[in-house]
Design a protein that fits this description.
Length: 132
């Protein structure tokens, strides 16, 4: 259909809202998340060895994706990138393991639709204001 001579490769680049390039944002995020992960591994080993309880301490690893999404949301100035789902599930699992009461703690998961709905409402309000 196309001749190889006539075909042009093009790349569509969208600049992030923060003014920083995606490459710079990813480098900062990678550095921060890597450092955080190494610190968590050291803390986990120390807590496990000193307190002789590996079971409850593995839950700290659930904070890694929460931290990563928080960093990305802050750097890109987009609150929708924050993983409220992971935060809610982590809180639910942690409360369930520590208290043994899974039934009333599931209510924590209701924060997910509340957060996403609120975020959507703010986006719609912003869109309406910009286009009036």
């Amino acid at each position: 259909m196309y001749d190889k001579d006539e075909y042009v490769d093009a790349e569509y680049v969208i600049e992030p809202r923060s003014g920083m390039s995606y490459k710079k944002i990813n480098a900062i995020k990678s550095l921060l998340v890597s450092t955080y992960t190494i610190i968590l591994v050291v803390v986990y080993v120390v807590l496990g060895a000193v307190l002789d309880g590996w079971h409850p301490w593995w839950l700290i690893f659930l904070t890694i994706p929460i931290y990563a999404s928080l960093i990305e949301a802050i750097l890109r100035k987009r609150p929708g990138l924050f993983s409220i789902e992971m935060l809610a599930v982590s809180v639910y699992v942690t409360l369930g393991f520590l208290t043994g009461k899974w039934h009333p703690t599931w209510v924590v998961l209701l924060v997910i639709p509340v957060y996403r709905s609120t975020l959507s409402a703010f986006r719609k309000i912003k869109y309406i204001r910009e286009n009036d």
